[in-house]
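Quarterly update from the structural biology core.
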Amino acid sequence: MHQFTWLFFLLSFTIYGQDYSKDTTIITKTYSQRWELDKADKKGTFRLISYKPIYLTAGRISSNPNKQPKSENPDYSATESSPYKHVEAKFQLSFKTKIIQDLLWGNGDIWLGYTQKAHWQIYNTDISRAFRELNYEPELIFKYPIHFKFFSGQFKSIGISLNHQSNGKDLPGSRSWNRIIFHTGYEINNWIVTLNPWIRIADKEDENPKITKYIGNGELNIAYSYNKHQFYSIITHPFTSLEGGSIQLNYVFPIKGHLRGQIQAFEGYGETMIDYNYRQTTLGIGISFADW
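Predicted structure, tokenized:
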């Protein structure tokens, strides 16, 4: 995890130290445009648009596939090992739509979001190329614009969301949890930073009792855009200890026209729900259709 972290930040600060203030070829949207925070950016309700990154990774290799998932709840621990291969495909789809506009003094909005992530053993004929894991994540999001200057940038929004995440499996592979997620967005030059701490809502029948110990109690997203290139990281951490958490590093680059390639590296716990307490390092390459 540490080698990926230092590599990313070294690259980030190298780019940040250069002067791109006169560059006019940035094609990514600002944070305000993505969430329609300013009056000039309002587009109305019930428009289906991208939310989190949308991508297809044709080849993702894992250092140590989770062949026999375990849980602190014994009813949700596999008793047999599965013949999963180190290489698989991965894709993520993510969309949102605004359902209510101009709440609370004409500024706040409510959105519906949906993200689906799939890990597909497409190269594994022994299990008929089955999907190893599918994660479903619907959420209800409230966003309220703010304008608070900090250093050379500005905090742009605060908000809260009700989030559900599950993998839709039967025993013993079922995993799910519900969260209240708080978020704030900060923008400076070509950087977007969002901080998302959360509170887990207790489950009567807990399928993954110590999930926050491994995945964490919050998420930090850092994205930087230059020309048609984008670097973004997704970092989770429990905050209460040095153990646990994860980091995902992404580099999105142009290929031709609107077609873009993506390199994604992950290290830590919880790349999927079934892997919430399982640590691994993965590396994948594919194509990107929508950025952060």
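Confidence is low (pLDDT under 50) at residues 1-27.
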